[in-house]
Amino acid sequence: MSEYAGETSAAGGPRPRRAEPRSLTAQVVELVEELCLAPDARPGDHLPSENELAERFGVSRVVLREAMKTLEARGLVHRRQGKPAVIASPNALPIENFVALAVLRDRRALMEFTEIRKALEVHGARLAAERIAGPEEPDTREHIARARASIAELRADPETMATRLRTDVAFHQSLALASGNGSLAQILQALEKSLAASRERSHRRYLDGGGDPAGSATEHEELLEAVLSGDPSRAAAAMEHHLQVTLHEIETRPDAD
């Protein structure tokens, strides 16, 4: 803690706190980042052991482990019990952590990130329709088949909440992957995890309000058909309408929610 903590200035206000030097942990984080981002480094490559890294950087294993925890939270490395860490593949874990924290702290953030999700999914539907209508269509078949399977599973058991949530996520992830934009799909997956509680709330309000349980499967079928039409504008409009319903539900939630 700074030597100025708790002191007051002559004017009666708190005195400015002296800036602390960067911690050893922060310095080690930067050094390991350099290893992970080196030109010849590849996802899946093993990093040196903790003992080797601690010795190389001249720090204790405690400091090294704290640095590795930070890097894992950022999605840069993947640690395994009793084995050297490996360089992680590009992922959206930092986005997931940021969104989860923001939503917990501020209810308005839920609306903001749902709006972001809508914008991304509308664009993803447009891209998926373009790929289906173009030469890349074979690459989308696996994802379209998964989307169809999620609809069938939902229609077979529309009243079980676990089924509704699982198939809803699977359907939207499949369309995102069908877009061919891997980064878009990863960002959407990060948003989905952080907005999971809100998704469940939407489903519960829909059922409690007397909505047809099988109606959700029908909505997804219509959305999928719009994508399969190969018409980007139609696909985008269908996704826009589909997610606008979700936004309206969040906007009209009672304050108690």
Automatic annotation (TrEMBL):
Chain intervals for the UniProt region annotation (Disordered): 1-23
PROSITE patterns, alphabetized: HTH_GNTR
Listed CDD domains: WHTH_GntR
InterPro entries listed in its UniProt record: GntR_C (IPR011711), TF_FadR/GntR_C (IPR008920), Tscrpt_reg_HTH_GntR (IPR000524), WH-like_DNA-bd_sf (IPR036388), WH_DNA-bd_sf (IPR036390)
Coiled-coil ranges per UniProt: none
Domain HTH gntR-type residue range list: 22-90
Key words of the record: DNA-binding, Transcription, Transcription regulation
PANTHER family: GNTR FAMILY REGULATORY PROTEIN (PTHR43537:SF44), TRANSCRIPTIONAL REGULATOR, GNTR FAMILY (PTHR43537)
Protein known as: FadR/GntR family transcriptional regulator
Organism: Georgenia deserti
Classification of source organism: Bacteria, Bacillati, Actinomycetota, Actinomycetes, Micrococcales
